[in-house]
Target: Transcriptional regulator
Amino acid sequence: MKYIIAMIRPEKLDNVKKELQKIGAHGLTVSSVSGYGAQGGHLSVDRTKTEKYEANLLDKVKIEIAVKDEFLQTTVEAIEKGSKDIDGYIGSGKIFVLSLDDAIRIRTKENGNDAL
Ligand SMILES: Nc1ncnc2c1ncn2[C@@H]1O[C@H](COP(=O)(O)OP(=O)(O)O)[C@@H](O)[C@H]1O
Model:
């Protein structure tokens, strides 16, 4: 099992949800976060500036999804498709993939793949 954490731009959430529904994703958790990536949260890079930019925290949406291994690629592709903007747009987001040891559905006590 894998645990996918994606940081996307808030205005892309509806698109991403639609793409995930198309592939039949069974569950997800969404939260509002703030952060910055390699560009320090700046929407453009002023190459004439030589001094260091101060990092700027931007609003992002964090999506978390636990999936069976065989759904990893489809799910990542759905997130990419839903959050894609103009090619190379800074701050389009990032997807992290973690190994997931177990999942337990409290209601039924199912675990592992059966709990997803
Ligand atoms: N190394 C990191 N560790 C944790 N979160 C990160 C990391 N890099 C990016 N993020 C999160 O992902 C969001 C989107 O990153 P983004 O700005 O698109 O990255 P980049 O500037 O590297 O293209 C950031 O606002 C931040 O919340």
About this structure: DSSP finds two helices and four strands in the chain.
